[in-house]
Design goal:
201 residues; alpha+beta; Nucleotide Exchange Factor Grpe, Chain A, domain 2; 3 domains; 3-stranded antiparallel β-sheet; 3-stranded mixed β-sheet
């Protein structure tokens, strides 16, 4: 009988099926078992990983959009340098036509040459238009500092203050970007040239 009792109590006198300190689900000071605490830890780590993943995806999308925008800009403005180099050619063609007004030319050979210069200018400006390059010739418009550069101010009867009264050199825009401002003279008034909002082109 004592042997059976020893088997039930064990050598230390404690019950043989006493697993005190060995149960992984035993509540601790916070009332949670170790398995519950581990589950909460895993859930927290999962949420953190999910948040990091979402941030990484958002950053990747931002980079993709930025690269796409840069690529689109590169395509839209690829001719910028070439166009700038041709502006002086367009200016010289216009000066040649203004230096010899066709109505004052009587020599048929000179007249034919002027017609050729005018045709060349039209062809060049047509090529500019096809590539998104547009001339700014704002005579009669309100001065707009976004597209015009005032070279002088002068009194001009009948012209409102801040109106462009003379275009010394036309400007150009490429797509929606200013390539060169128009050099202009502005009607003098009581103050500085008005910054109009009319379309300069």
């Amino acid at each position: 009988m004592s042997d059976d009792k020893d088997e039930m109590t064990g050598a230390s006198g404690a019950p043989a099926n006493d697993f005190t300190g060995m149960d992984p689900g035993e509540p601790g000071d916070d009332g949670l078992g170790s398995s519950d605490r581990r589950l909460l830890q895993i859930e927290s780590e999962l949420n953190e990983t999910k948040d990091q993943l979402l941030r990484a995806l958002a950053e990747t999308e931002n980079v993709r959009r930025r690269l796409q925008r840069d690529r689109d800009d590169a395509q839209r403005y690829a001719v910028t340098g070439f166009a700038k180099d041709l502006l002086s050619t367009a200016d010289n063609l216009r000066r040649a036509l203004e230096a010899l007004p066709e109505a004052e030319v009587t020599d048929p050979r000179v007249k034919g040459m002027l017609e050729g210069v005018a045709a060349t200018e039209r062809e060049l400006l047509g090529a500019f238009e096809r590539h998104g390059l547009k001339r700014i010739d704002p005579k009669g418009q309100r001065f707009d500092h976004n597209f015009h550069q005032a070279i002088f101010e002068a009194e001009r009867p009948g012209a409102a203050a801040g109106t462009v009264i003379e275009v010394l050199q036309p400007g150009y825009v490429l797509q929606d970007r200013l390539l060169r401002p128009a050099m202009v003279g502005v009607a003098k008034g009581s103050g500085a040239p008005s910054e109009g909002t009319d379309d300069a082109a």
